[in-house]
Specification:
The protein is an alpha+beta fold and 295 residues long. The chain has six helices and 14 strands. The chain starts with a strand and ends with a strand.
């Protein structure tokens, strides 16, 4: 059954001194595709931008470019969306994928309109450098003749078991090889590790940015702002298309994940990035609330 969600994503940036000019590039509009429909979406920005435009990036993600030319000590961006999430393939279908060697061979030998999309997710990207260490980490799951998606599920589970979630251990500038060796990080690190492993084996994998519904302890109410931006990996399998895996939560992506966009890695779908003139230091506060809509 499909599930509807209300998603509220608030980002508040407070500057130490007034910013005199700011340009920001936003990826905050949930994407519509086979498993998800964005029913409504509104961006509220304070102070009001003097200029803005909606665009679609190279990967088909909705973006907004805005300019604030009046001095401001704080910038607030609120994304308010309603999305419907459709059922996805479950674990019983993973065995129906081609062997991982066959999938790799097809990507290497066939380049046409059908394979062009996965082909561009085979290579290094700004935050993902492929290499032997990543391939070696992946190989125990990718035994000869094993179905691609079954192997990916085991790799997902191994990353969850081997790595510790630690928001203090890394920054976006931490090299991927250091994350692999240190075995600590956050969801974007774990997604990058999985993507790097698969690309190092010659397989196509992309980065997905979005949200995940988190459940409160039994008997306690859901808290406003308790959910978070999230990231996971999506693997291409001929015949089934793109199948999403979440190594942070050791699961095949189903009905509790809301997709904003996808790209080669985090740098392609950063929720909010830009340049400012002035401001000095800054503090960032982010609150995400994902609420199922009944009925």
């Amino acid at each position: 059954m499909s599930i509807r969600y209300h998603v509220l994503h608030e980002t508040v940036t407070t500057y130490h001194r007034a910013v005199t000019l700011s340009q920001q590039f936003l990826h905050m509009t949930p994407r519509s595709f086979a498993y998800q429909t964005t029913e409504s979406h509104e961006l509220s920005i304070t102070p009001k931008p003097q200029d803005w435009s909606n665009r679609v990036d190279y990967f088909g993600n909705a973006t907004r470019l805005l300019t604030l030319s009046a001095p401001h000590p704080e910038l607030t961006v609120v994304s308010d969306s309603v999305v419907t999430v459709q059922p996805r393939p479950d674990r019983s279908q993973l065995i129906n994928s081609p062997s991982w060697e066959d999938q790799r061979a097809r990507l290497r030998t066939t380049l046409n309109a059908t394979t062009l999309d996965p082909y561009e997710f085979l290579f290094n990207s700004p935050h993902i450098a492929c290499g032997d260490e990543l391939a070696d980490y992946a190989r125990p799951s990718f035994t000869p003749g094993r179905p691609l998606l079954e192997a990916c599920m085991e790799l997902t589970e191994r990353i969850h078991s081997d790595f510790k979630y630690d928001p203090e251990a890394t920054t976006i500038a931490t090299p991927l090889i250091d994350v692999l060796r240190g075995r600590h990080g956050v969801c974007q690190d774990f997604a990058h590790v999985m993507i790097g492993c698969l690309r190092s084996l010659g397989l196509s994998c992309r980065y997905v940015s979005g949200y995940i519904l988190t459940m409160p302890p039994e008997g306690q109410p859901r808290l406003v702002g308790a959910d978070a931006s999230h990231a996971w990996a999506s693997v291409y399998s001929e015949g089934l298309g793109w199948i999403d895996f979440d190594p942070t939560n050791r699961c095949l992506v189903q009905h509790e994940h809301i997709t904003v966009g996808w790209g080669r890695d985090f740098s392609d779908v950063t929720p909010m990035r830009g340049i400012v003139l002035g401001g000095g230091g800054q503090e960032l506060r982010v609150a995400v609330t994902v609420t199922p809509i009944e009925g």
